[in-house]
Amino acid sequence: MWRLAVTTLVILSLLDVAYLKMFGICELALTLADEKYHVPLSQIPTWVCMAMYTSGLDTSHNYTGYFGLFGISGQHWCGQCDITCDKLTNDDLSEDVACAQLIYNRYNSENSSGFNAWGGYYHTCNENNRLYIMTNCISFWNNFLPRFPEDERYRIWTILRSHRSAEPKEDEVATPSEANTIIRQTSLHIVKLAITIMFTICYSNSLGF
């Protein structure tokens, strides 16, 4: 029995190392702003909103054929993005962003936004809603809002100001995804602790204590 306990403990330790990332809202916004992803700044609030509703900001998302941070359809897009769907469920966003942008570009036209590829999720992420969820991303807006076109900058600032007065500061609360991360990590550590205790008891019994 103690061998089983040791094996289980090792497996749980490996799972802890391989723990896949769940983003916070502001963390994802700042990540997507990295120049290596080539995401237009004006699109970042929409991408963050879409990720929140499609995957809960979970990079390991895999549900009913939809994969990764942006809930990409495996049936329709993994092949066209020239990747296997499991590439969308690790903590490297390169494939996720590249595939999402390919989808966006395929659907984008003068008469339709490329975000329409995500159907109802995009309609949920109207301008007011997508800016609302990023109201308290002070570090993002301080760094990047000045780079928006002047007319768009003023409109965004007006919406943000209307929300911000009643909202807590960015670092005062955890986002739902951050809270879920804490819960999952804590649960894993509790299980590991229980296995360690079981191993100790079994080992002590084997020595005749």
From TrEMBL:
Gene3D superfamilies, A to Z: 1.10.530.10
The protein's Enzyme Commission number: 3.2.1.17
Entry keyword annotation includes Metal-binding: no
GO biological process terms on file: defense response to bacterium; killing of cells of another organism
Annotated Glycosyl hydrolases family 22 (GH22) domain residues: 81-99
Originating organism: Apolygus lucorum
Family annotation (InterPro entries): Glyco_hydro_22, Glyco_hydro_22_CS, Lysozyme-like_dom_sf
Xref: PANTHER family: LYSOZYME C (PTHR11407:SF63)
Name the UniProt record assigns to this protein: lysozyme
Pfam families assigned to the protein according to its UniProt record, in alphabetical order: Lys (PF00062)
Lineage top rank: taxon: Eukaryota
Root EC class: hydrolase
Catalytic activity: Hydrolysis of (1->4)-beta-linkages between N-acetylmuramic acid and N-acetyl-D-glucosamine residues in a peptidoglycan and between N-acetyl-D-glucosamine residues in chitodextrins
Key words, A-Z: Antimicrobial, Bacteriolytic enzyme, Disulfide bond, Glycosidase, Hydrolase
Gene Ontology MF terms: lysozyme activity
SMART domains noted in UniProt: LYZ1 (SM00263)
